[in-house]
């Protein structure tokens, strides 16, 4: 603070400090724990710097090399022939396809599974518990590892990426969908049963209209994030723009690398903008 | 023209007839919209399936030794099963200890690399939190010192989180050579981007009155942030940070695949040397670590939330 307290203020502050010392100063054990936490963190950080061999000299050479790479960014590379440009376009299209089809297939598989994990649909605690642990297990596996496995089975190409995204999304979607189902109101369901509807009809006309907007918004959101993760699957060989990117990095063609990165950023922007548009329309339609 | 001409009285047979035509029209419109939507969706599915090589045919070896062309999905599924079954280690009750020892035969190296993986995640979280925290205040519209500063910081945060960690890792491996340093920087920059965005959203939802109070008492911009904003956002920031640490542990077990340190390099070696049981052992190690860390940090997060509310 820039303003110094005047003399009467200082006296009043002293009086307040005498009356309620804890408001001015935390108790000793709190301060000790805090000091230990920061000291421990600082020590670990220093130890990491030594263990990871992060020296000023290494940082300097790295930064100069990084600056060298960045200098290729201007002007960005422009593909002049259609053959080269169509390769990049095909990569972008493959990445989008991987994200789209992976999301759709994952959702199709997760939808029936999610009913098994919802407390208000599945009344068997043991089955529900085991289904939920299954979702957790699927979610714990990295998409990249799945892609590596699928590449061994289905060969290099976007198909391995589609399947990897689909399988890893099954766990996420099943969890999110079943939470959405659990958050529905019971009253429409009771209404359908009171009018003589079967259990299936209660789900169709009582639960579905409530969860559909939530599910659509989850799908859109995960499609966005799958476009991002789809780019990295290419780096291990699952097709798409990531494959071109890692290929160009391996060949040290940094000017093309930057152009591809710019295109990826543009694509992600466009997708985010577009799905934001759809989401606001969906919310407007249901609200 | 009177009002009755525009809005004819709604009773009797004419009203019923009008309701019927209106309802039929609405039904037709809804049905049309549904079928167009379905058509567009189906076309998109077909297009993406074609682009994604979903309908590729591949050569397979038939039981009698001849080669034939088959659709890739049924052709690949047995290969997938074969691959997965190869990764399952042989464990017998009679010699469980020896079998486990054979399965985790490189456990010394793997434990060392696991420790490195966790440290990479921790360092990256420190880098990301420091960067994200400092940038989140000028990036929030209500706290920003100048709109141009906000614009530049927001673009930087977007680039940092849109470029995947693995791409940052590839670039940093080239610049800083192979090793955990590249991994720390790659995950750190990506965390900085995502955390900066999340923190700045928290910052935009704070109560502005404490800041006004600090300004009225003569505080500078830094004083306003330090005494007005930080105490409000701290619990949320701690919670996001712990979540990010969980994500970073997963990432740091992967970045080694491109040479940026941690367990990922062993995964790559096991893949290329076709050491199938090593793969499952590494998978078990990563899975257990991720579950334990998620559990611990989840507990810590709940304590933070409870302490503040």
TrEMBL record, chain A:
Membrane topology: Multi-pass membrane protein
Chief location: membrane
Positions of the ABC transmembrane type-1 domain: 92-275
Coiled coil: none
Cell location: Cell membrane
MF term (GO), any: ABC-type phosphonate transporter activity
Transmembrane annotation, as ranges: 35-54, 96-116, 202-221, 227-245, 257-278
Keywords: Membrane, Transmembrane, Transmembrane helix, Transport
GO cellular component: plasma membrane
SUPFAM superfamilies found in the cross-reference section: MetI-like
Pfam family, one: BPD_transp_1
PROSITE patterns per record: ABC_TM1
Entry similarity comment: Belongs to the binding-protein-dependent transport system permease family.
Stated name of the protein: Phosphonate ABC transporter, permease protein PhnE
Lineage of origin: Bacteria, Pseudomonadati, Pseudomonadota, Alphaproteobacteria, Rhodobacterales
Gene: phnE
From TrEMBL, chain B:
Localization of this protein: Cell membrane
Key words, A-Z: Cell membrane, Membrane, Transmembrane, Transmembrane helix, Transport
Family: Belongs to the binding-protein-dependent transport system permease family.
Highest taxon listed in the record's lineage: Bacteria
GO CC field: plasma membrane
Recorded GO MF terms: ABC-type phosphonate transporter activity
Record-linked SUPFAM superfamilies: MetI-like (SSF161098)
Topology in the lipid bilayer: Multi-pass membrane protein
Pfam families per UniProt: BPD_transp_1
Transmembrane segments: 34-52, 113-135, 166-189, 279-296
All copies of domain ABC transmembrane type-1, residue ranges: 114-297
InterPro entries from the UniProt entry: MetI-like, MetI-like_sf, PhnE/PtxC
Protein's name according to its UniProt entry: Phosphonate ABC transporter, permease protein PhnE
